[in-house]
Amino acid sequence: MWIVDKYIDYVKEQTQKNPEQSFDKILLGFKANKLRTKVLPKGGLARGYQKLEAMMMSLVADSLGKPDSYVWGNIFAPCELMQCFGLSTLSVECLACYLSGYHLEDYFIDYAQSTGIAPTLCSYHKTFVGAIDSGVVPVPRYAVTTSLSCDGNLNTFRYLEKKKGVPFTFLDVPYEDDDASVAYLADQLRDFTGELERRFGKKFDVEKLRRSLEIENETRKLLIEFFHLQSERYYPGELISHLYLMMGMHLMIGTPEFLELVRFLVEDIKKCPPFEGKKILWVHLLPFYQESLQHYFNENDKYQIIASDIILDSVEMLDEREPFTALAKKIIRNMYNGSYAHKAEIVSALAESLHPDAVIQFCHWGCKQSAGGSLILKEEMQKKDIPMLILDGDGIDKRNSHDGQIKTRLEAFLEMLDTLEKDEERSQQGREEKVC
User: Fold this and answer.
1) pTM of the prediction?
2) Residue 340: count of CB within 10 angstroms of its CB
């Protein structure tokens, strides 16, 4: 590992000195990590999570190595449409996470703010903007974003169009779930497909889209099965394993490769031993770098994250006979669209299905949607007698997360869960003695 650390330090130093000459070094690291995940996967991880990490590393390394093979998007962009043209989708949020692997997020964030980007903008977006503005990352031919969830999306993509000349499509997602709203978004999706035809010189094949939606439906059903199995069996993973799963569900959903990966997860976990520890349902973003969270949730048989809402933010089964209408419904009915009460209702249903011992919501700094609605969700969990912890921090900028505070609150919460279990055991024992 010291070789990896040395290379990370080298790339960080070279990037800060000569940002416009550093991309090849960054890409080389991604390609090396792609090879490492296939040949020398992380020991201790479940095999399915090892395969998942290798797949996500390949997606980023292979796409960045071929600038004409991908478009930028946000995580809610309809990757199914890009796949019909043989294009990958790289979301700005996921790219920011990968760049942070070189510990460059603070440099990129400071660079973005030095050019006038507001400090209040989401740190994922600031990391990405700083990487592009500094000349580190080359730009693709096209981009697409949605109005869904994050109010920084439109401004970020407008800025990159103005500064770097990257044209983009903006998909305006209605809040209301009615026929008029679905038709409005479906028309935008058709127009976007026409734009991809013109820009990439390929003819759209609606049968490819229909097949993609069939695969997506099967993938989603298998993922739900996997979540149920993960609430019953110990499947060693890491915080970042759930981030990779979120990437797959948003950037590769509808592909045969990702379907096979999820199918492998389901079959592999069936071989694992029962899980006897505390089951955690995670809400919102996953601060994969945070040390205390890693300590408690990386390969720990006492505490296991059984699902994350952002992985399964859409539960819509898609009618492939009307593919544009189906995609429009999927996007509109996403739990991150509309009022927070809508999200709380879907998370509540997920909790009712998976029976977690607790819910943890991570409120990412700068994300108004997350922080503003957390108490609504907590009220819903109280109705179900499910303890919930709200943690504040930053999903990518370590300077905005205080490990000591997170550690103190997390340990107190987990201790409370253990106490509740012991109290319940004593109560059960008392009831049995009375019966006897």
Assistant:
1) 0.94
2) 18
